[in-house]
User: Fold this.
Amino acid sequence: MKGRRLKVFQAHLGFHDTIVAAPSQKAALQAWGAGAAEFAKGFAQVTTDPAAVGSALAHPGKVLKRPFGSKGEYKLESDPVPKRKLTPRQRKIATDAAKLEKRETAARRKAEREVKQAQQEEIREMAALKRREAELEKEKLAAREKARKRIERAKARLAGPSRR
Assistant:
C-alpha cells in the first residue's frame, strides 16, 4: 500500500462500526470481506472523522472496530458489545421465564425417570411371569403324567381278568 494515497472507509458490519485505511473501495471491501454492493447500498462510505482517520492511518489495511453506536475509539480487537439494559418488568418476565423453563425441565426429567422406572418394572414383571409360566408348565406336565398313570391303572383294572 505504499506509494498510493490512502483513504479511510467506514462501514457498519454486524454489531460493529468498522474503519479501514485503503487505497480504493475495492481494497476496503477485500479487507472487510464484504460484497461490492456495500458502497452502493450506503452501508460503507469514505469518512473524514479525524479520530477515525488517525486510528486507521496508524494501521493501514487493517480493519478496526468498535461496538455499533458507541463513541469509543476504533481498535483491532473491539470491546465487547454491551448488553441491553432491561427494565424491571422485562427482568421479571425473563426471571419468570427462566423459572418456568427450570420447572418444565425438572418435570421432563421426572417424567423420563418415571418412564425408565416403568420400563424396568415391566422387564422385572415379565421375567417373573416367565418364571411362573415355566413352573406352571412343569405342574401341567406333572398333572398330565399323574392323570395318565391313573387312567392306565383304571383301564388295567377294567380289562383285568379278575371278576369275583
